[in-house]
């Protein structure tokens, strides 16, 4: 599974990266994390607010850091 964190590197973006990585590890998923900081690339996803979570090319969450349980639900659909 490819997890992309869209954001400029602010504290919220870093927190989302860490939370997503922890959720994926807890699930035992095989994953790679990519941080997307280029504004044009972020906008190409249709995202106007960061941080955003993208899983396998699909935007799952924008403008917030989901709770751990919610993150796992967003990732588990992709992990199967």
Descriptive report:
This protein has 80 residues and is α+β, with helices and mostly antiparallel strands. The chain has one domain (2-79): Glutaredoxin (3-Layer(aba) Sandwich), CATH 3.40.30. The chain contains three helices and four strands; from the N terminus they run βαβαββα. β3 and β4 form a beta hairpin. The relative contact order is 0.27.
Give keywords.
80 residues; alpha+beta; Glutaredoxin; four-stranded mixed beta sheet; 3 helices; 4 strands; 24% strand
| Relevant CATH superfamily | Glutaredoxin
Query: Stretches where pLDDT falls below 50 for ≥5 residues?
Result: none
Number of structurally distinct domains = 1
Euclidean distance between termini CA atoms: 10 Å
Number of helices: 3
Broad shape: globular
CATH fold-level topology: Glutaredoxin
| Rg, nearest Å | 11 Å
Q: Kindly report the average pLDDT value.
A: 92
Number of strands: 4
Structural class: alpha+beta
Quickly name the level 1 CATH class.
Answer: Alpha Beta
Side-by-side strand order of the widest sheet:
2-1-3-4
Percent range for β-strand residues: 15-25%
Instruction: Give, in order, the helices and strands.
Output: EHEHEEH
